[in-house]
Amino acid sequence: MSYTYEYARPALTTDCVVFGLDDEDLKVLLIQRDIPPYEARWALPGGFVRVGEDIDESARRELREETSLKNVFLEQLYSFGHPRRDPREHVVTIAYYALVNLLEHQPRADTDARKAAWFPLDDLPTLAFDHGKILETARERLRGKLRYEPIGFELLPEKFTLTELQKLYERILDEEIDKRNFRKKVKKLGILEETEEVQSDVAHRAARLYRFDQKQYKALLKKGFNFEL
Amino acid sequence: MSYTYEYARPALTTDCVVFGLDDEDLKVLLIQRDIPPYEARWALPGGFVRVGEDIDESARRELREETSLKNVFLEQLYSFGHPRRDPREHVVTIAYYALVNLLEHQPRADTDARKAAWFPLDDLPTLAFDHGKILETARERLRGKLRYEPIGFELLPEKFTLTELQKLYERILDEEIDKRNFRKKVKKLGILEETEEVQSDVAHRAARLYRFDQKQYKALLKKGFNFEL
DNA sequence: TCAAAAGTGTTGGAATTACACCCATGC
DNA sequence: GCATGGGTGTAATTCCAACACTTTTGA
C-alpha cells in the first residue's frame, strides 16, 4: 500500500515531554530507541500522526502505546519544523507536554521491546534529534505556567499536604518560599478543599491532606478570578 | 510530478493572524479566497509548507506572497489539526500571529488576483475553515502576552507618544487605565528612550515622542528584570 | 480666547515580606 | 524525652489606586 500526492509533504509527528514528580525530584520520561537513526539513544515518546486523527489524540495514543500512560494532563507545547531536525527527511513535530504523578501513574517500564525510564532533569542523557531543545522549551513553559495556572496539582497525588505543594513550587521555580506566607496565599485562593485525613506512616506529626477543588476553581474563573502563586 | 509515501500523510500548512493598529482600532488582515472551498470567503493568509523549508520561514513566505508584508514581528501561535477542519482532506495547520503598524506597513491590497483587507476585530466577516477559532486564539494570546512581554511596541510606529501607548493597552485589554499611574509605571521600567522630537501637525500641545529601547530591554532581561504592565 | 490634549505628585489603603516559637507524633 | 516536621500571627515596608489642576499649542 502506498500514497501519492501532487506535491511533496513533510512527515508529521507528535512528541511528548512527560514530567513526573516523586519525593526527590522533577523527572522526565524517556524511551530508548531500538532502531536507527540514533539507535540506543534516549528520546521523547512520540510517533507519526495518522490521517483522520486529531493531533491531540495522536499525542495521547502515542503516550498510551509507548508508556501505557492514560488520562493524564496533556497540553500542546510548540511545533518544531527545522528541515534537518531528522536526518532521514523533513519531519515536522507538534510537541506536547504531560504532567503526571510519578507514584500514582507508574508506567509499565517496557511496553514493546523498548525501555522507558525516568530521568531527573539535572542528570539527562544526550537526547536523539532536537529533543533536548524540545525538553528545554517544555521546562520553560512549565515554569511560566506554574505561576498563573493551577497545573502544579497535576504533579501531585489527589490528596497532598501543603508542604508537598510548597516543595513542588520551590523545585520547579528554583527558589525558596516562606512557609507561612505560602500557606496564607494558597489558602486565600479558596481552591483547596481541606479533607478530614492526615498523612499516615510518618515519623513525626502527620500533616493535613488537601485536595484541589476543580469545580470551585472553574466557578471562580467565571467571576474574573485570577490564579497566581 | 508526484510524490509517493508508504503511509498516508496529512497536508501541512501555516496560517497567519496579522494584527494591525491604526488610529481607531485593532484590525486584522484577511484575504478573500478565489477558489473553492469557501470561494469568496475571507480567510487568514497562509499556505502549504514546502519540504525543506522551516515552518517559520514558510509563514514568512506566505505572508510576503499574499500580503507583501516583510520584516514584521512573527511568532508561532498554536497548531490546529482537527481531521475535518478542511473539507477536502486532513490538513494540519501551524498558526502564527504577526504584529504590524498599520500606517508604516501598508500591505499592497491585492497581490495576485486576490483581495486583501483590514477588518476591525469587532466587525468581522464569517471566516473560512476554522479560521475564526484561530483568530480568537490569537486574540487571547495577544491579550495575555501584552502584560508581560513588550510586544505592544510592535504595533506602534518607531516613535510614539505615551498616550498612543496607553490607548493601545486600553484597546487590547479592554479596560481603562489611569493616565498618571500608567506613565509612572512605564517610565520606571527604563526601556523607553525619550527622543528630542515632539508630535507635529496636531491641533493642540504636541506630545513628546518615545522609542522602545530594545538593547536596554535585553540587557535588563539578563539581570532578571521582568517586564510587566 | 478657546478647545484639546499634555503633563505632573500626593496620600490612604492593600498587599507583601520578614521573621520565631510551640505543637503533635513516632520512635 | 527527643527528633522531626506541622502549624500559626504580627509588624514594617512596599506597592498600587485614586484623584484634579496647570500648561502648551494651533485654530
From TrEMBL, chains A, B:
Domain of life: Bacteria
Keyword flag Hydrolase: yes
MF-aspect GO terms: hydrolase activity
Alphabetical keyword list: Hydrolase
Pfam families in the cross-refs: NUDIX, WHD_NrtR
Sequence ranges assigned to domain Nudix hydrolase in this UniProt record: 11-142
4Fe-4S listed as a keyword: no
InterPro entries: Nudix_hydrolase (IPR020476), NUDIX_hydrolase-like_dom_sf (IPR015797), NUDIX_hydrolase_dom (IPR000086), WH-like_DNA-bd_sf (IPR036388), WH_DNA-bd_sf (IPR036390), WHD_NrtR (IPR054105)
Protein name per Swiss-Prot or TrEMBL: NUDIX hydrolase
Biological classification of the source: Bacteria, Pseudomonadati, Verrucomicrobiota, Verrucomicrobiia, Verrucomicrobiales
